[in-house]
Amino acid sequence: MNKTSLIFKHEFWHTTRRVGFIILTLSLPVLVLLGIGIFHIVSGITKPPAEVTRIGYVDQAGGFAQFTTQGNITLVQFDTPEAATQALIQKNIKEYFVIPPDFISTGIIKRYTMQKEMVLPATTKTAITNFLSSNLLAEKVSPSVIARIETPLNLVTTTLNATGAVAAKQGGPADLIIPGIFGLLLALSLISSSTYVLQGLGEEKKSRLMEILLSSVSTRQLISGKVLGIGVAGLAQVVIWVISIPLLLSLASSSIGGFLSTIQIPPNLLVLGVAYFILGYLIFAVLAAGVAAISTTVQEGQGIAGIFTLFAVAPFWFYSLIFAFPNSPVWIVFSIFPFSAPVLVMLRLGMLGVPVWQLIASIVVMVLSIVGGMLLVAKLLRAYLLMYGKRPGLRVIVRSLRSG
Amino acid sequence: MPAVEVSHIVKSYANKVVVNDLSFSVDQGEIFGLIGPNGAGKTTTIRMMMDIVKPDSGEVTILSEKLTEASKNKLGYLPEERGLYRKLTTIDSIIYLASLKGLDRHSAEEKADELLTQTGMLPHKRKRIEELSRGMKQIIQFIVTIIHNPELVILDEPFAGLDPVNTELVKGMFADLRNRGKAVILSTHQMNEVEELCDRILMIDHGRSVLYGKLAEIKSRYRSNSVLLEFEGKLGEVSGVREKRPHQGYVELVLDGNTTPGQVLERLVSAGIVINRFEVATPSLNEIFLMVAGKNHE
């Protein structure tokens, strides 16, 4: 086994056994399962009782005797308001209402309840409304027309593209949520993986292992083995998430339903998610290696690297602006800027999509940045990896990069 | 075939010449001392030998070839600034670092067991490195340095942090390496250790060679023309002795330029002096070190 492979294997196992790595990897599936569980617990507690609610009414206008079953609500007729009040006191009914003789001309319904409430419950209002309209229209129009009057609108919207064909993206909250989750996970994974590179090199520098390692391997072998080993561990993390998201989504939509059942993960998001993770990781890993070379402590290195990792999370600060103006030139520039591209492209993909030329431009810039960064970082590593307790100044670093 | 051949190497950092036209060679089966004051350029010289730092000019050949990734496996290096993975166990640390020297897992574990037993560290095999004392870590680092049976071993300040028991243990292992025909380069400030262990030395100062050769020859070169004498009875005038310097329990006889120690011994015996100790006075390496380093720093 060559030495790069040995370092790769060591770093991979070392990273995947870290408690922080395991917690982060399992956090997504565990949090989603927890969310589903909490939904069921909460919905079980707050679910309206299955038993029938009895609501009384006094028909002083006449003609309101049919359609007394409205969902779980049964309407019970009383001859007088006094009789209805007695039934309410004895808790035989939950509440009652009176249809006055001039209802047709005024529309006034008098409602009596013993409960203090801010607003009329929607189920009660719907039941009373449907009861009144059904009785008013009975024998004048067909039951299907009555049903249509009660629920006039089942709106189905289809988004068309410029050619008039059905657009691939139909919008809605699902289009924002999945790229948002992907972007967030990508940012977390990029930051944690590159931090592992920084910590690994920083600890080897701090514990004075570097010179022992360099007596066995070259700087190139050390860095490539380390970056690849930690990178593959990070990729494994992303792949676990990519595999688990559709499974968890299917579980969530079958048990919760609602708009979750409308969520579909576009295959290009998965492919681009993995591609942007690899490129983004390499960008941040190269940066982390360079920072580790010039830093005296791991903490100092994390402080310096933190400035750059801000670019990875910055798109979330401007999420609403990106949503409001998805085609702003500012976002286009930052979609090509290598430190912000991975997460920003993920977010924009969910909104209006990202034109192919921008995807190509951002990928090309990232690849060039990785290659150029590696060449520069190799110089820094050779110059400063064995320098302990003293951080070179910016001028000295620039001179080292120039002289090689 | 020399184990190391260093030829006219030069290294500068920020316009400061750290190693200046240095040349020396180290033979197989010898312990070679690389000594010099702080900042003399010893560590930079070693790093150039290990190909960790590239010389600006000059050449280094190790075992008759330029150092390559493959030939690094024939070298064992214990740097001055050294450490281990704190969270790994002793055996995992040894196996990983040995694997980087070309040993497979099985051979590494077998050899590690042997060396751990030899150094009395076997009970600590499964402990994490952070649980070991500083001296124990030093022993593990020394095991890592030699586990792959290197042809050339370079040790930078190997006795730092070792207690007298472990120092003797490590010295015994050095001697064993030499007896097995390995070349050992020992860089240290501890002159008594160099004097005890080394066959030849190179003293550098300001990046230049100031003393180079067999230890015995160098000591002879710096020998003062005097003898140390412990005796019984009364010491009168001795022909050829220019000055008598009394010390606690013995006297130093400074000879004139025409008299040898052998002639003085003959004269003392014929004068009936009871001699308990007669020793040609040679300066310690420490004195030579101070003499040479001091002269260069004046």
Number of helices of chain B: 9
> Order of helices and strands of chain A, N to C?
HHEEEHEHEHHHHHHHHHHHH
Using the 3D structure, state the CATH architecture of the largest domain in chain B.
Answer: 3-Layer(aba) Sandwich
Tell me, what's the shape of chain A? elongated
Which pair has the most extensive contact?
A: A-B, 22 and 24 residues
CATH topology of the largest domain in chain B: Rossmann fold
Averaged pLDDT of chain B: 88
Structural domains of chain B: how many: 2
Strand neighbour order, sheet with most strands of chain B: 5-6-7-3-8-9
Given the helix and strand composition of chain A, which structural class is it? Answer: mainly alpha
The CATH class of the largest domain in chain B, by name, is Alpha Beta
CATH superfamily caption of the largest domain in chain B? P-loop containing nucleotide triphosphate hydrolases
Strand content of chain A: 5-15%
Radius of gyration of chain B: 23 Å
What percent of the residues of chain A sit in helical stretches (DSSP H or I)? Answer: 55-70%
Widest beta sheet: strand line-up of chain A: 2-3-1-4-5
- Radius of gyration based on Cα positions of chain A: 32 Å
Head-to-tail CA distance between termini of chain A:
31 Å
What is the β-strand count of chain B?
A: 13
Number of helices of chain A: 16
Compose a concise summary of this entry.
The complex is a heterodimer of chains A (404) and B (298). Chain A is mainly alpha-helical and 404 residues long. In chain A, 66% of the residues lie in helices and 6% in strands.
